[in-house]
Amino acid sequence: MRRVFCLFFILLAPCLSLPQPSQAQERMRIAWAGSTPSNTPIWVADQKGFFKKNGLNAEVIAISASTIVIQALLTGEVDFIIAPSATLVTSRLAGADTVMVSTNLPLFIDHIVSLGNISSVEQLKGKIGGVNRLGTTSDMTLRLALRRLGVDPEKETKIIATGENPQRLAALANNLTQFTLLGEPLVREAEKLGFRDLYDIGTLKIPYHVNAVVTREKTIKERRPFVAKVVRAFTEALHFIKTNKEETKTLIGKNLKTNDPEGLERAYRAYNGAFPEVPYPNAEGVKTLLDDIAPRTPKAATADPKSFVDMSVVQELESSGFIKQLYKR
Hints:
Layout: H1 2-17, E1 26-33, H2 40-47, H3 50-53, E2 56-63, H4 66-74, E3 80-83, H5 85-93, E4 98-107, E5 111-114, E6 128-131, H6 137-148, E7 158-161, H7 165-173, E8 179-182, H8 186-192, E9 196-200, E10 207-216, H9 217-222, H10 224-243, H11 245-256, H12 261-272, H13 283-293, H14 298-302, H15 312-319, H16 322-326
Parallel strand pairs: 1-2, 1-3, 6-7, 6-8
Antiparallel strand pairs: 3-10, 4-10, 5-8, 5-9
Helix pairs in contact: 2-10, 11-12
């Protein structure tokens, strides 16, 4: 019997010494739109391994516009999207069960950029503005900012779709438009081309979820641990951004295909200051948009901003002490 046991152990030993399979990764699909530094958290979460670290086999999908991204979520093609308040609000008012579970960028950071001979916001009246597509983030943001600055975008300007950032700059250069909406480092590029950084709308301090993690209520109900992994990965990505400046600038440059040192420095400084440590999806950012569209959208006037967000996942993460430990507090 002893000889049989020894023989069994000899045969088993090589199997025990083999590399053990890694912990199973949960498949996740997430879509984002817009080549701006506001998407740095998803680039970091993906390219610096925070999805994988949190047990997620992530397929990260770039889509050209936020209006298309929401369709991917509602048809079940993706589990999460990175979207602004506008995408969330319009879909939910239409009856979807979309909900925000965390935010990456809760304030406007963009700038209104104009032709060099325009020196005040007042002079935008009667002019043509360019955005990516009508109904997208750039369109909603520009219109909201103009209203806050005393310009009626519907009656006093004309806003047209000219495409993504390079096409918007080209439209300015050809005088097809006289102003547009850009963020750093594109503002720096526009200045080099002779355009004017007319107004930094970040100075308005308007609460608005420019970049948020959105999913469906059904997903939270049926796969809450899965949702928690995603929120945790983004929270770690935000910490990385805040504590690894040079690596983050390199990653922004890689994804935006630019190596301009001053532009990247300006982009990091602007966005890093707005990225939160604790990514609560507060209702205030949703209320900004609901109030703005209420005169034109009756449902918005009676909607409860709190119903658009689920703060519980971030609350649980913060209560666990994870975020304090992350920042060593």
